[in-house]
Amino acid sequence: MPKLTDKEREQRRRKMQEEALESVAARGQFNFRLEGQYIKRLYELAGRRRQPVSAMVREWVLERLAVEENNKYSVPLWAQELEQRLVHTIDKLLKKG
Among 90, 62, 64, 88, which residue's Cα sits nearest to residue 78? Predict the structure, then answer.
């Protein structure tokens, strides 16, 4: 078997990565590890909300994905809101002074 060039190796790696992503996306299932203490907290919160854990986490992921995709600089929403309040407060103070 002939040796692959760096470029060929990179092309093969990218192709395998794309195929793996397509396979995962086609299944519609995504798994990840989380420490036990956080899993317990998730189940407790879902229980209080009377909502399945998977639906709650899916909702959070989709919300966060939308925020990240719509935010060019990936600044958390709470930081954006804080900045707006600070700007508003500073404007009010400057108008008084």
Answer: 64
Q: Give the whole-angstrom CA distance, residue 85 versus residue 74.
A: 19
Q: Whole-angstrom Cα distance, residue 36 to residue 42?
A: 10
What average pLDDT does the segment 16-38 reach? 93
Task: Evaluate the CA torsion angle 38, 30, 64, 79 in order and state its sign.
Answer: positive
- Distance in angstroms (rounded) separating the CA atoms of residues 25 and 23: 5
Separation CA 50–CA 44 (nearest Å): 10
SS (H, E, C) the chain: CCCCCHHHHHHHHHHHHHHHHHHHHHHCCCCCCCCHHHHHHHHHHHHHHCCCHHHHHHHHHHHHHHHHHHCCCCCCHHHHHHHHHHHHHHHHHHHHC
Mean pLDDT of the chain: 89
User: What is the pLDDT, as a whole number, of residue 74?
Assistant: 66
What is the pLDDT, as a whole number, of residue 79? 82
